[in-house]
């Protein structure tokens, strides 16, 4: 049975205890390393397991392109097994609010052939705003059998981005903040700027506001992506700093009806690591 891409807090409250539903907390911060895990310990959706972006949803740096390479199939399968996620499990992922890390789990599950995955609309911010219960107890789930079947066609590497940026009708979306895209500020990577030809749509613009981080209606997302150049029938690829937050824009594209957008795995941290690659600045 097809599961919804996006579920409401009302839906999750009604289904969180279903035997085939597993709630996953993916809260994470690039700047404050233990922020997500600490938030989980303080209080999480009842029954939720914690999955760490750095250790469960990425391989160690150096085992692939960029700062957050895709995890190896066996490593991802082991993480899912420990979380009690098996072939028939419906996974509902949430984060602090805007889906920027919950969509990383959604995307990885999809990449490894597991289609039964949803994102909680508004994440923990919406859950607590609605006055719903939280718990600090760490649940115990029996290990499950997870069989990864990678779909390499969903991933772009630097060579693919090089081709797409020159391909008529193709669209490369940089989802970072404008100041990083324009090269005005680069707090993380050694080079500032963006892939020449890439269009900028910061991933927070896919949700209503910081105070209400639910996704925009599908029709609004569709219109916004069409204005960028989506809808020509040519490929769409997304990148961020390291391939984590870009998953949220891939998810938003899916909500808008643009299926199978590509994720540039290494993203800007990979692109700017080779001095001969072209770099653009400005708007």
Question: Topology of this structure?
Answer:
Layout: E1 6-7, H1 9-15, E2 21-25, H2 35-42, E3 49-50, H3 73-82, E4 90-94, H4 102-111, E5 117-120, H5 123-129, E6 155-156, H6 158-164, E7 171-174, H7 178-181, E8 199-200, H8 218-228, E9 236-239, H9 246-255, E10 262-264, H10 267-271
Parallel strand pairs: 1-5, 2-3, 2-4, 4-5, 6-10, 7-8, 7-9, 9-10
3D structure, described in words:
By secondary structure, this protein is of the alpha/beta class. The chain has 2 domains: 6-150, Rhodanese-like domain (Oxidized Rhodanese, domain 1), CATH 3.40.250; 153-271, Oxidized Rhodanese, domain 1 (3-Layer(aba) Sandwich), CATH 3.40.250. The chain is 28% helix and 12% strand. It is built from 10 helices and 10 strands. It has helices at 9-15, 35-42, 73-82, 102-111, 123-129, 158-164, 178-181, 218-228, 246-255, 267-271; strands at 6-7, 21-25, 49-50, 90-94, 117-120, 155-156, 171-174, 199-200, 236-239, 262-264. The strands form 2 sheets. It has a 5-stranded parallel β-sheet with strand order 1-5-4-2-3. The chain has a 5-stranded parallel β-sheet with strand order 6-10-9-7-8. Helix 4 links the parallel strand 4 and strand 5 (117-120). Helix 4 crosses helix 9 (246-255). The N and C termini lie far apart (44 Å). The model has no long low-confidence stretch (mean pLDDT 97).
What is shown here, in short?
This protein has 283 residues and is of the alpha/beta class. The chain has ten helices and ten strands. Helices cover 28% and strands 12% of the residues.
């Amino acid at each position: 049975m097809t599961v919804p891409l996006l579920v409401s807090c009302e839906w999750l409250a009604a289904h969180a205890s279903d035997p085939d539903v597993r709630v996953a907390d993916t809260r994470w911060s690039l700047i404050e390393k233990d922020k997500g895990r600490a938030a989980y310990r303080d209080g999480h959706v009842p029954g939720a397991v914690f999955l760490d972006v750095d250790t469960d949803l990425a391989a160690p740096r150096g085992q692939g392109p960029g700062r957050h390479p895709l995890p190896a199939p066996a490593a991802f399968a082991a993480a899912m097994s420990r979380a009690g996620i098996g072939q028939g499990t419906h996974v509902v992922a949430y984060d602090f609010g805007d889906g920027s890390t919950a969509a990383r789990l959604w995307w990885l599950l999809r990449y490894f052939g597991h289609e039964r995955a949803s994102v909680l609309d508004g994440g923990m911010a919406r859950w607590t705003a609605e006055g719903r219960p939280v718990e600090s107890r760490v649940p115990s789930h029996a290990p499950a059998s997870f069989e990864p079947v990678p779909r390499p066609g969903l991933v772009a590497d630097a060579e693919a981005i090089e081709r797409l940026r020159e391909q008529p009708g193709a669209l490369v979306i940089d989802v970072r903040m404008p100041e990083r895209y324009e090269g005005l500020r680069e707090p993380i990577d050694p080079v500032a700027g963006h892939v020449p030809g890439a269009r900028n749509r910061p991933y927070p613009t896919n949700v209503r506001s910081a105070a209400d981080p639910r996704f925009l209606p599908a029709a609004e997302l569709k219109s916004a992506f069409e204005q960028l150049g989506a809808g020509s029938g040519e490929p769409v690829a997304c990148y961020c700093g390291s391939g984590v937050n870009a998953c949220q824009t891939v998810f938003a594209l899916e909500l808008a009806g643009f299926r199978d957008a590509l994720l540039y795995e290494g993203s800007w941290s990979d692109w700017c690591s080779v001095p001969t690659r072209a770099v653009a600045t400005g708007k």
